[in-house]
Amino acid sequence: RMLKRQMQCRLDIDRLNAAFLAIYESLVPPEEETAKQKQFFMLLEKLVSKEWPEARLYLYGSCANSFGVSKSDIDVCLTIEDAEINKSEVLLKLADILQADNLQNVQALTRARVPIVKLMDPVTGISCDICLNNVLAVVNTKLLRDYAQIDVRLRQLAFIVKHWAKSRGVNATYQGTLSSYAYVLMCIHFLQQRRPAILPCLQEMGTTYSAIVDDIRCAYFDQVEKLRGFGSRNKETIAQLVWAFFNYWAYRHDYANGVISVRTGSMLSKREKDWTRRIGNDRHLICIEDPFEISHDLGRVVDKFSIKVLREEFERAAEIMQYDPNPCVTLFEPY
Ligand code: ATP
Ligand code: MG
């Protein structure tokens, strides 16, 4: 009887696992979508180089970090080396050029916290934001993409966590919840902490890639093709990892003292970061260290109301993973 029970359990977990993998597969963008993005990006490159021959364009964010779901907007960064440029002028000029080429809904938001030009391509239907000289975002995009190459479970877990966060309304920094970027860092850190570890800590390994951006040295081991199979001693399945991820953030994380750090692959303390007091609007109620801008807490947008919302959502998810007969549906129910 016991054996039969164990076997039933096994079957349930396997079925759950297959269901999570199916959700992951349904979120991955199809090949033709990625091809369209590339094509549109090349058009932008052509338009930009006519006006600024030395300038370069980079894709960043979810269209380039391998954590983008189907039908995402694309994020583009224009870099111009000239230190003399006036950012607003360049963005207004860029908006003119794009408008003249029949791109639609072109808007220069020069007074935003991160000034951008927004536009839509009527041919492919792709929407796009272009920012200026935001090279750190290009570099952290590469770091995320490199981590994703090491073990497929990172991409699977992050897609499911992002999908959950969007469905439950906890993926909006302007409402005090977390960015997609923060959720991916939480997934990387979580997989660095599994035993056996599923991901290494690339910034603690020998440097093969290094760049200095805004006076910050960004250095890490980027020959990730040599690390395939790194996590293969750990046999945890995606269903187990989703369970453990929510269990961690619901019941095990030390919100009072802990800072998660992908840079060191470990847990730091608020005290050593000097993140123990509220300074201005930074309350440090959930602490996620940026891997390169290490004085930057990605949880700083979270306030005393949204921390409650966030923790209740983690607890709801953990309960569902533990007790719900059909977690793959209930987890993503709209709030
Ligand atoms: P989505 O699929 O939701 O669009 P995304 O990966 O594009 O996800 P965003 O949170 O929109 O994620 O951020 C886009 C990019 O901007 C990130 O990949 C990162 O490079 C950069 N970024 C976003 N927020 C921050 C931040 N607080 N600090 C540094 N870089 C950030
Ligand atoms: Mg984005």
Quickly list its features:
335 residues; alpha+beta; 2 domains; five-stranded mixed sheet; three-stranded mixed sheet; 10 helices; 10 strands; 15% strand; globular; binds adenosine-5'-triphosphate; binds magnesium ion
Written overview of the protein:
- The protein is α+β, with helices and mostly antiparallel strands and 335 residues long.
- The chain folds into two domains: 31-136, Beta Polymerase, domain 2 (2-Layer Sandwich); 142-330, Poly(a)-polymerase, middle domain, CATH 1.10.1410.10.
- It has helices at 2-27, 31-51, 87-100, 135-150, 152-167, 180-193, 238-252, 270-273, 306-323, 327-330, and strands at residues 56-60, 74-79, 104-109, 116-120, 127-132, 209-213, 216-220, 258-261, 266-269, 287-289.
- The strands form three sheets. It has a five-stranded mixed β-sheet, with helices on both faces. Strands 9-8-10 form a three-stranded mixed β-sheet. The chain has a two-stranded antiparallel ribbon with strand order 6-7.
- A hairpin with a 6-residue loop joins strand 4 and strand 5.
- Helix 7 (238-252) packs across helix 9 (306-323).
- It is globular and about 75 Å long.
- The two termini are 40 Å apart.
- It binds adenosine-5'-triphosphate and magnesium ion.
- Magnesium ion (MG) binds at residues 61-62, 73, 75.
- Adenosine-5'-triphosphate binds at residues 60-62, 65, 67-68, 72, 75, 137, 140-141, 179-181, 290, 296, 298.
Secondary structure blueprint with pairings:
Blueprint: H1 2-27, H2 31-51, E1 56-60, E2 74-79, H3 87-100, E3 104-109, E4 116-120, E5 127-132, H4 135-150, H5 152-167, H6 180-193, E6 209-213, E7 216-220, H7 238-252, E8 258-261, E9 266-269, H8 270-273, E10 287-289, H9 306-323, H10 327-330
Helix pairs in contact: 1-5, 4-5, 5-6, 7-9
The protein binds adenosine-5'-triphosphate and magnesium ion (MG).
The site of adenosine-5'-triphosphate has 17 residues, from helix 4 and helix 6.
